[in-house]
Amino acid sequence: MITTWYEAELIGSKEETKGTNRFWFRINSEQPVEYEAGQFFTFDLPIGEKRLDRWRSYSIANTFDKSNIIELCVSYKKNGLASEYFFNEINKGDLVKFKGPEGNFIIPKFEFANIVMLATGTGVVPFRAILQKIDQEKIKTNNLHLIFGTRKYKDILYLEELEDFAHFIDGLKIDICLSREKKLPKNLKNIHFHSGYIHQIYMNLDLKIIQNSLFMVCGWNNMLDESVANLLTKLKVDKKNIKLEMFG
Ligand SMILES: Cc1cc2nc3c(=O)[nH]c(=O)nc-3n(C[C@H](O)[C@H](O)[C@H](O)COP(=O)(O)OP(=O)(O)OC[C@H]3O[C@@H](n4cnc5c(N)ncnc54)[C@H](O)[C@@H]3O)c2cc1C
User: Fold this and answer.
1) Mutation to probe ligand 1, out of 56, 85, 89, 120 (largest number of atoms < 8 A from CB)
2) What residue owns the CA closest to ligand 1's atom 48?
3) N or C, where is the chain less crowded by C-beta within 10 Å?
4) pTM check: above 0.85
C-alpha cells in the first residue's frame, strides 16, 4: 500500500501546563484529512539522519471538524529529540510531514454499558478528542468514567474543558488522582479529586460495573503494564474488553 504523506504548518502553540505544550497545525490539503477521535498521526521530524530515527507518533487532541486544523499536546522529555524540536526549535510557519491516521483507540460502534477511560499525563490526549466529539456531536453514550492521574493540581491538562465535559456530557464521571499534591482541591460537579494513583480508583469499582465495561487505557508503558496486569489478573476483565494505546 502506498503511504500518503501530508504537510502541515505550525500556526500556533501555547503552554498548557509546565512542561506540556499544545500545538496547532494547519494541514496543507484541499480535501479535509479525515480521522476518528482517538487516532494518531506519525510525524517525520527533522531530528535525525535515518528515517526511523525521525518518526514520532502523536495522538490527535481535537476531534475532526473539516477545518484541517489539528492539535497536538506534547510533554517535554529532557534531551528527547522530538521534545527538543517541539519545545526549542519549531517556529510558527514551519512545515512538518506526517502520515496517518492510524490506530484503533476509538469508541466502539457497538454498545458497552460503561466505558472506563484510564490515563496519566498526556495519555489523556485521545480521551480529550473523544469527549470533545461526544460533546460537540451530542452523541448518546452510556456511562463514561474518566480516571486521570497526574502529579499536582497545576499539572492537570485540559482542566477547564474537563469541567465543561463533566457538566454537559450526560453520564460522564471524572476522577482525578494527584500523586504529589498535599492539599486536595474541592470536588466539582461530577469531578472528584483524590490523593495517590489511578489504580486505587478502578480497583474499587463495583463488580457489576467491572463486568460490563470496556476499559480504554492510554499512557506510557509502566502505567499501562500495571493497569493491564491489575485488570486481567486481579479484576478478571476479559482481554477483549480492554483497549490500549501505548506511547512508548
Ligand atoms: C500512538 C502514540 C501516541 C503518542 N501520543 C503522544 C502525545 O499525545 N503526547 C506526547 O507527548 N507523546 C506522545 N507519544 C510519544 C511520542 O511519540 C514521543 O515518544 C515522545 O514525544 C518522546 O519523544 P522524544 O524524541 O522527545 O524522546 P525519545 O528520545 O524518543 O525518548 C526516549 C524514550 O524515553 C521514554 N519517554 C519519553 N517521554 C516520556 C514520558 N513523558 N514519560 C515516560 N517515558 C518517556 C520513551 O520510552 C522513549 O522511547 C505517543 C506515542 C505513540 C506511539
Assistant:
1) 56
2) 248
3) N
4) yes
The pLDDT of residue 52 is above 90:
no
Fold: same for 5-102 and 114-246: no
pLDDT for 111 beyond 80: no
**Radius of gyration over every alpha carbon of the chain, rounded to an integer in angstroms:** 18
Write down the domain spans for the chain: 5-102, 114-246
How many other CB atoms are found less than 10 A from the CB of residue 211? 15
CATH of domain 114-246: 3.40.50.80
Where are the extended beta strands (E) located within the chain? 5-17, 20-27, 40-44, 55-59, 69-75, 95-102, 114-120, 143-150, 172-178, 191-195, 213-219, 242-246
For residues 111 and 14, give the distance between their C-alpha atoms in angstroms, rounded to a whole number: 37
Buried b (16+ CB within 10 A) or exposed e, 25-42: bebeeeeebebbbbbbbb
The Å distance, Cα 245 to ligand 1 centre, comes to 12
